[in-house]
Amino acid sequence: MNRAAGVSEVAADGGRPAAVVPGRRGRPRSAAADSAIIEAVLSLIEDGVSIAELSMERIAREAGVGKATVYRRWPGKNALMLDVMRSLDVPSPPAAGLSVRDDLVSLLEFLRHRGLAKRGSALLRTVVSHVRAQPELWAEYHATVIRARHEALLGVLRRGVANGEIRADHDLDTLADLFVGPMLARALLHERTDLPEGLPADLVDLVLEGVRPGVRPAAATAAG
Amino acid sequence: MNRAAGVSEVAADGGRPAAVVPGRRGRPRSAAADSAIIEAVLSLIEDGVSIAELSMERIAREAGVGKATVYRRWPGKNALMLDVMRSLDVPSPPAAGLSVRDDLVSLLEFLRHRGLAKRGSALLRTVVSHVRAQPELWAEYHATVIRARHEALLGVLRRGVANGEIRADHDLDTLADLFVGPMLARALLHERTDLPEGLPADLVDLVLEGVRPGVRPAAATAAG
DNA sequence: CCGATACGGAACGGGGCCGTATCGGTGACT
DNA sequence: AGTCACCGATACGGCCCCGTTCCGTATCGG
User: What HEC string does chain B produce?
Assistant: First the structure.
C-alpha cells in the first residue's frame, strides 16, 4: 500500500488498457480479462470494500486473473483506478435544445442517474474519495470528466444569458455551481444518499426563481 | 492497512483520548503526547501524505512518541482519525441574529473559513475522503458534526420562513442544500479549491433572488 | 508449422505494518 | 518513600502486499 505510489505513472499514457497494436504478432490481449478486472474492482467496492483494502492481488483474485495479467495492462493501482473511474462515465449528455430551463433539468437529471444514482452511489463515492485525495489522479480526472460536464453546463447557461433566461451580472462558473452544488450536497452530506425523482426539476426551478417568497411571473417583470 | 479494520472499534467510546479517570493511581497521561499525536497526523497530511500512506508507526515516529503511547489512547487508526476530524471542528457559529440574509451569509462565511479555507482545505479534504469512504466513521462524523451544522442552518431558515424572508413552499432540507451545495461544489470540483472572500454573500443573494434576470425590489441590475 | 505473445497460477525476495510485549526510566500521586 | 501507571524505545511473530519472474498452456500471425 505504502510503497510511495509512482507519481507520474498515470501521466505516461493516461491509463487505458493499452489499445492492441494492429500489426501485432502472437496471442492478442483478452478483452474478457480487461473487463473482468474492471468489473472485479467495481464489484469489490460495491460490496463495501474500501479502497485502502483493495490490493492488486485481491483484484486479480476476484477477477479470476493472474496478477501479471493486471500488470500487463496497467502500471499500478492508480492507473487502474483512473480507468475504473472513466468506465463509470458515459459518453455525454445529448443536450436536447428545448428551453434552457429544460436543458438544465435534463442535465441535472443526467447527473442524478449517472454517478449519483442509488446503486452507483456507494461506488462512485468510494472511488471519488480515493481519487480526490491523490492530486495526480484528481488532476487527470478533472481534466477528463469534470471539465467536460462543466463545459456542457456552461454552454447551456450561455445560451440562457443570450436569450434572457439567465441573468448576466454574475460569473457563469458561480452560476453553474448553484445548479450542481445542491445535487452534490444531497449526495454527499446526507444519510440517504439517493436522489429522489423530481429533485432536478425542483432544484432548477428553485434556483431560477430564488428562495425569496415574492411571487414571480414566468418572465421578466419590473416590480416596484 | 488491510487487517479488516475493527468495525465497532469506534462506537465503543466514540473516540477521544480517554479522559483520565479521576481516582487514578500512578503517572498521569501526558497531555503533550495527546496533542503531539494529533498534530503529527495533521502535519503529515498537510505535507501531502495520503491517508493510505499513514500508518500508526509513521504517526508515532513523526510525533516523537512510542507506538504504545498511541495505542494506549486509541484502539486503532479509525478512532484516531475520528478525533483528528473532530479537532478540526470548532465549537459552533455564534448565530448572530441580524437579518436572516445576514445570518446566512455569516453561516457560509463560517464554513468558508472553517474546513474549506485555504490552508485547511487539503487537510480537511483528505481526512474527509477517508472518513467518507468508511461507513462507520462517516456515520459517527455525520451525527456529530454535520448534523449540528445542518440544524443551525435549518434554524435560520425557519426564522426566515416565519418572518417571510424565505418561501415556505419547499422542503427546508432542500433549501439548506441550496446554500451549502455551491460552497461544496466550489471547494470540491474546481481546480482552485480556495474560496474567495465575497463568495458567501454573493451566493446567498443569488440563491435568495434567483438566477432569472427579472428585476426584483432589492436587486437593482436589470440585464438585457 | 514456428515464433511470438498472451493466459492463469505460483513462487520469489524485499518490505511495511499490525498489535503486543518488554525494556529501563520518570513523575505524580499516597 | 513507595507505588504504579505512564514514558520512549525496541523487538517480536505474523501477515499481506509489492512487482517480477518463471512455469506450462493457449492462440494468434506468418
Answer: CCCCCCHHHCCCCCCCCCCCCCCCCCCCCCHHHHHHHHHHHHHHHHCCCCHHHCCHHHHHHHHCCCHHHHHHHCCCHHHHHHHHHHHHCCCCCCCCCCCHHHHHHHHHHHHHHCCCCHHHHHHHHHHHHHHHCCHHHHHHHHHHHHHHHHHHHHHHHHHHHHCCCCCCCCCHHHHHHHHHHHHHHHHHHCCCCCCCCCHHHHHHHHHHHCCCCCCCCCCCCCCC
Q: Is pTM, for the whole model, over 0.85?
A: no
Contact A168 B216 (CB under 8 A): no
What does the alpha-carbon distance between residue B34 and residue B25 come to, in Å, rounded to a whole number? 19
pLDDT in tens, A82-103: 898 888 776 666 667 778 999 9
Rounded, the Å distance between the CA of B25 and C1' of D4 is 6
- Mutate: best of A111, A129, A158, A193, partner B, most B CBs <10 A: A129
Does residue A132 belong to the interface with chain B, where contact is any CB pair within 8 Å? Answer: yes
Nearest CA of chain A to the CA of B212: how many Å? Answer: 5
Distance from the Cα of residue B71 to its chain's centroid: 25
For A137-182, the pLDDT digits (tens) are 788 788 878 888 899 999 999 999 998 999 999 999 999 999 999 9
